[in-house]
Write a structure and sequence with these properties.
Helix content: 25-40%
Number of strands: 7
Number of helices: 8
Structural class: alpha/beta
Strand content: 15-25%
Largest sheet: 7 strands, mixed
Strand order of the largest sheet: 3-2-1-4-5-7-6
Order of helices and strands: HHEHEHEEHEHHEHE
Shape: globular
Distance between the termini: 32 Å
Length: 214
């Protein structure tokens, strides 16, 4: 969801049936692609209120959240969960090389003007790999929600663009990708489609990409 959300409203959206369903599908896809080892460290870049930071931590990872917005970080700390939260920019991560096993950015690069630079920073501080959650331009969600509500100001990306960002990374990553949220309404038909359609199809509204260091 977008940067224009007030922290309490942002968290409230994830407590709605649709918001909860979407978050569960997005997180499940990222974890299936990433397959992280337990008790490894992860930096959640653009963590906002810590919605996905808490999910990564509950899955057994040691999580640090980073966000440029003090109000979001204040709300994240109030919600607890045992994570460390740091104020900072995705374009200049305040960490040494290889400081974390993994880095994640869940619909946060969509609001970064230079995603290639942000990805290079994540690649620098990650020992094992990076997982990205992006808004997919080739989706029903794009046609219905582009420029509206929490999506206002967001950039919608494609796997081809991620591959272009990766061209500058060293070592070159091994890439895995999938999509989720094929029908964004969240009703019975959408949930049925989500169970039947494989994540390898490129048309889901949420594009998850794992970049693995090999």
């Amino acid at each position: 969801m977008g940067q224009g959300f007030e922290p309490g409203r942002y968290e409230a959206w994830y407590r709605t049936p649709r918001g909860r369903w979407i978050a569960e599908r997005e997180f499940g896809l990222m974890m299936r692609l990433l397959q992280p080892e337990l008790d490894r460290s992860l930096l959640d870049v653009g963590c906002g209120t810590g919605q996905f930071s808490r999910r990564f931590a509950a899955a057994g990872l040691r999580v640090t959240g980073l966000d440029p917005a003090p109000a979001m970080l204040h709300h994240a700390r109030l919600l607890g969960g045992g994570m460390d939260y740091v104020e900072g920019s995705a374009l200049a991560l305040p960490f040494n090389d290889a400081s974390f096993d993994y880095c994640a950015a869940v619909t946060s690069l969509c609001f970064v003007a230079d995603p290639g630079r942000a990805l290079a920073e994540m690649w620098r501080v990650a020992r094992r790999g990076v997982v990205l959650g992006l808004l997919n331009r080739h989706s029903v969600l794009y046609r219905r929600k582009q420029g509206q509500g929490g999506y206002a100001g967001a950039r919608w990306d494609s796997l081809a663009e991620v591959r272009r960002w990766c061209a500058a990374l060293s070592p070159a990553p091994r890439l895995r990708a999938g999509t989720a949220i094929f029908l964004p309404a969240g009703g019975a038909l959408a949930r049925l489609a989500e169970r039947l359609l494989p994540a390898r199809l490129p048309w889901g509204g949420f594009l998850a990409v794992v970049l693995e260091k090999v």
